[in-house]
Amino acid sequence: MKFDLLPQDCVSYILSCTSPRDACRSSTVSSEVRDAADSNLMWEKFLLSDYPEIISRLVSPVEFKSKKELFLKLSTPLLIDGGKKIFSIDKSTSKKCYMLSARDLYIPWATNSLYWCWKSLLESRFVEVAELIMVCWLEIQGTINTKMLSPNTTYGAYLIVKFPDRAFGLETLPSEVFVEVGEHRSQGTIYLRCNGGIKTELGRDSVDTLGSRDIGGSVERVIEKREDGWLEIELGDFYNDGSEREVKMSLREVKGQHLKGGIVVEGIELRPKL
To answer: What confidence tens digit (pLDDT) does each residue in 193-227 have?
Structure first.
């Protein structure tokens, strides 16, 4: 029997066992398959089971006429929790993605205008970001509960930053980065090079010829350019098995006594590692 001759509910169920991307591609087979690929029955499977709770946390309400339209809107980054976080669904995997804003992070002396300033940037999706004026102790920490994330998924945590022209003292010593969940710890080091050691998302134009290296169990990271114009630093990764635990994420350089300044922090992003 031809695939497009099956009852629409059967076709919808079969397509729901694939991925959103594959389901959309299958809609070109025939008008019957396209109807099944657009059905609420199929997109209900791709939507998160707790999507009503996610919708209730949105800063701006979303309007939708179908479950497919809702999925597509939730796959676009949206502000939640009073604008302190960004939520989206990964289009390829239907997994949850979050970004914690700088206001949602722990940054020592962030409320002291002598050390940090809060400002608005047109290129940021948050109302404000944090810019380091000058400190000798640099530390940026974030936490999130695994219950907020998709279970049975490996996540990566990424610090999203920029370096203005006035940045100084950031690459004198390597910064330590880590992600910790229970007894699991993923760690590394990163030189916060303002004009070098940066590669694109596709791995081209790398200035740091050494790349990522494993040094005694601690991986030396590289800064990567993002499509949105920001830079990202991988802090580490972890597997979410579905149990409730706290994820701790951090970048710090506290060994040097020299002054450093200029890094702009937008937040920490958590997304599935493909």
So the answer is: 766 555 444 343 333 333 444 544 567 889 999 99
The token duo for 17 is 């066992």
Collapsing DSSP states into helix, strand and coil, what is residue 7? Answer: coil
What's the CA gap between 116 and 171, in Å, rounded? 19
SS3 call for 145: strand
Rounded distance between C-alpha atoms, residue 145 and residue 187, angstroms: 19
- The token duo for 139 is 């530390």
Rounded distance between C-alpha atoms, residue 33 and residue 254, angstroms: 58
Q: Which of 250, 272, 229 is nearest to 97 (CA)?
A: 272
Q: Cα–Cα distance between 122 and 50 in angstroms, integer?
A: 32
Which of 115-119, 142-146, 165-169 bottoms out in mean pLDDT, i.e. has the lowest?
A: 165-169
Roughly how many angstroms between the first and final C-alpha of the chain, as a whole number? 35
Amino acid 210: pLDDT: 35
3 vs 238, which has greater pLDDT? Answer: 238
Amino acid 46 reads F
Q: How far apart are CA 251 and CA 178, in angstroms?
A: 7
Longest Cα–Cα distance of the chain, Å, equals 73
Q: Decide: helix, strand or coil at residue 33.
A: helix
- Residue 151 pLDDT exceeds 70: yes
Q: Give the other-Cβ count within 10 Å of 103's Cβ.
A: 18
Strand-pairing partners, residue 213, are: 220
Q: Are strands 198-199 and 223-225 parallel, antiparallel or unpaired?
A: parallel
Q: For 165-190, write each residue's pLDDT tens digit.
A: 999 999 999 999 999 999 999 999 99
Q: Closest Cα partner for 251 from 196, 188, 163, 168?
A: 188
